Description:
The complex is a heterodimer. Chain A is mostly helical. Chain A has three domains: 14-146, Fumarate Reductase Iron-sulfur Protein, Chain B, domain 2 (Orthogonal Bundle); 155-317, 3-Layer(aba) Sandwich (Rossmann fold), CATH 3.40.50; 325-449, Rossmann fold, CATH 3.40.50. Chain A has helices spanning 14-28, 31-34, 38-47, 59-63, 72-87, 89-94, 104-114, 133-146, 155-165, 173-191, 212-217, 219-231, 249-252, 254-271, 282-295, 308-317, 348-357, 389-396, 398-407, 417-429, 442-449; strands at 206-209, 236-237, 275-278, 304-307, 332-334, 361-362, 411-413, 438-440. Helix content of chain A is 50%, strand content 6%. Chain A has 21 helices and eight strands. Chain A starts with 13 loop residues before the first helix and ends with a helix. Chain A has a four-stranded parallel beta sheet. In chain A, helix 3 crosses helix 8 (133-146). Chain B is an all-alpha fold. Chain B has one domain (3-233): Fumarate Reductase Cytochrome B subunit, CATH 1.20.950. In chain B, helix 6 (111-139) runs antiparallel to helix 8 (149-171). The longest helix of chain B has 30 residues, at 3-32. At the A-B interface, helix 3, helix 5, helix 6 and helix 15 of A face helix 1, helix 3, helix 7, helix 8 and helix 11 of B.
Amino acid sequence: MKAEDEYKALPVDDAKYDELAPQFVEAIKKLNKSTVFGRILSTSLDICSKCGACVEHCPIYLASGKQRLYNPIVRTNLLRKLFRQHTTPTGKLLYTFSRHQFEGADLRALAESVYRCTICRRCSEFCTFKVDNALIVREGRVLLDSLGIAPRELREDGADKQLTIGAATGMNKDAFLGILRFMEDDIHERTGKTIHFPVDRKGADMLVLHNAGDYLAFMGDVMGIAEVLDEVGASWTLNTGFNDVVNYGLFFSDNYLVKILKRHCEEAERLGVKTLVVGECGHAYKVLKLFAKSVYADRPLPFEIKSILQVTDDYLREGRLRLNPERNPEPVTYHDSCNLGRMGGLYEEPRRILKASCKDFREMRPNRELNYCCGGGSGFAIMAGPAFLPFRMKIAGKMKVDQISETGAKKVVSVCSNCKAQLRELIQYYGLDQQGVTFSGLHELVANALVH
Amino acid sequence: MEPYVVAIAWILPYFTIAIFVGGLSFKSMNWLRRRMLVKWALYPVPTSGPGRIECLLVEIFTLRSLSKTSKGLWIGSLTFHAALILIILGHIRVFSAAPDYLMKQAGMTSIDTLSLVAGGAAGLAIVIAAVYLLARRVSIPYVRDISTVSDYLDILLLMAVFMSGDYMRFFSRVTLDETRAFFMSLAYFAPRPPPGDPAFILHFLVAQIFLMYLPFSKLVHFLGQLVNQKIVVTA
């Protein structure tokens, strides 16, 4: 029976796993005690009936050709079994006669396994008890991180860099301002409009925080958002300093999650804004929406949290934006990001905006809460690992590619940087670009349809 | 009375009750005292309080999420649990004459026939459903892959309880008067001899083992899911 695959997400050698295995067993005893999700984690570990209802709905399991290794419950059973064995009376009893010691190889298999799940939570949709397998995986990653096991892309090159420089991309203030000037010129050339990107404007209504990767990779959406806000005459600002909205802590560490979250809140308070608007980023919206409140234990949240989707949708409803869908004539389809959809509830906002800006909108199937993850979720989109990229392309993203092809759409739209990065690579890897398929963020299309 | 009958019928029941109630309380407290600092909805969720309760009840009584996946699992589980509810309701008659009295007051005369038909059918249906669920676990590769020793133990224990119960109902002469008198005496801590048929002792023993085991198995899902469902429908 194969316990591991040929891919590798973690830069950890076998000697390290051997050394850490006993510590992991100790750590597992505290699994549900330290986390802020302790309640749903405990029930999820206790009550899964192993009925298998969820298994055939996991995009990774399906795309792998139904390999046992990628069965979502085989994965959570690794943690469930250890947890039962070391913390429950029946577990202790049942495993009394078990000779098997938890060894380095077991830890390696477990550690790599929790980095084969995109934490998309699709499985829970099919569970009558709503067992949260995704959360079990996430908390497994948190335990591993507490022992120093985490992907370099998320910890050293991601969260650490963000906390020292302000952006996980490593972009400093001068580079940032340079990019803003470049975008101002670009908007002027395309539309003839002169837009000045407001920076560090105290007392503005809205602070817009983008995924810093967008300033480099998906500038069209950063410019699109600026054009929309400028069109309605909104009072808004960007910021220098801590201006990357990503919070990779969500994917692997509570410690980083809180540290980064606090910095975001400080920025909003420093500028005294009424609303912190999250740009086209899925996980960041979820983190801020759910956790920002807990930063202010003694008083209510001093600002509101919104996704740019809600802001633009409001402008549309209020009739403050005039859009001409003829400007975007090619067929488009929308990819629901897990963090905006299943975990954020923003299903209709992007669809209303898309239908107003594009002539030919097509749903992919399944969609909304049953949509397949792009395969880049939970940080995968930026991970290449020691040998991880082939997994992300061949397996994690395969269902998505099939789904996109079936729509016949020429543009795949997503409102999540993570998804966009993954979609961009998938389109190339599977040669969809040969058939004229491209990806796009939402606001690039909105801006293109804007009638001034 | 034989010593083993004394042990099973007079002593064990008090342990059973204590372990069952204590175990369920322990489990529930263990869940509820854990932190849940953030809302963790699985969208879409109902926006109103009554909507949430409706959503929860529909899930519990129709297993809606399972209907989205394998129809066999859905129908098998529904049959199993519907029969289980009937059996649990029917067992009130084993302990007390109150249901009979109330139903007579309501003008129903053929209580025993109703019990025989509905109870008998449920007793058979639940064994068939249990066999189906076990067969499914063994025969579908991806379900076999996720099954552990405890999963087989759970279903086999349940089947032992159901089959011993069915045997007693269809092939023995245990009467309700006997069982009521016995359980009343247990309740008053003045145990009287149990029904003399070995089928009763067998069923009573297996059922007690099951009840003591239940709080520590995945079968606490009947309670635990309430905790989960409340979390995921609240935004």
